[in-house]
Amino acid sequence: MSDIASSLAGKFIVFDGPDGSGKSTQMQRFMRWCTEQGLVVKEVREPGGTSIGEQIRQVLLDPKNDGMTIQCEMLLYMASRAQLVEQEIVPSLERGELVVADRFVSATLAYQGSAGGLPIKWIQQVAEVAVSGYWPDVTLILDVDDQTAVGRLNPLLDRMELKGRAFHRKVREGFLEQARSMPERYLVIDSTEDEDSVELAVKNAIKTRFCKDIP
Fold first, then answer.
1. I want to staple 174 with a disulfide (CB 3.0 to 4.6 A). Which of 9, 41, 42, 110 is the partner?
2. Residue 100, phi then psi, degrees to nearest 5
């Protein structure tokens, strides 16, 4: 195992950001790099990642469920998260694996809080129950302006992606506000550049945060 792998073993890293930010692409590239370094990587996604979570995901993202209240939406995300933490994340961390998640509490704070209007303190209170103390070591926010993001989205949009530009501008600002208020827990990556440049920025940011003494 390389020095980088030793520094990242047993860590919990989240990739998050607005729809169209390229976070899923960058997450896959990052995990491939980590595997090449000798790490055992556990990939999880939200909502979903477990049999129960995937059923919740179908309800949450189905465009037919446009009457869902914001309170119901938040609680369903947290329910999926609670199952994922106990069933997948905790055992992986205890085995010393690197856990890499596609979205986590940061997404709920941005989508249902900053953009959806739910009080942040309510979300944080429910999150304490859902994560059982297993907070990410760092959350990478892949930041992108709304014009660039729209050009990257699949034309077959899910229920969350259909909420409109004004909503998604609030989402972006919500992510950035989290990073400003908790810099020790967040890293912001400019994802408007080409994929290779963003990948390099992600690697450098992770090395700076966790591997300061490694060339």
1. 110
2. -125, 120
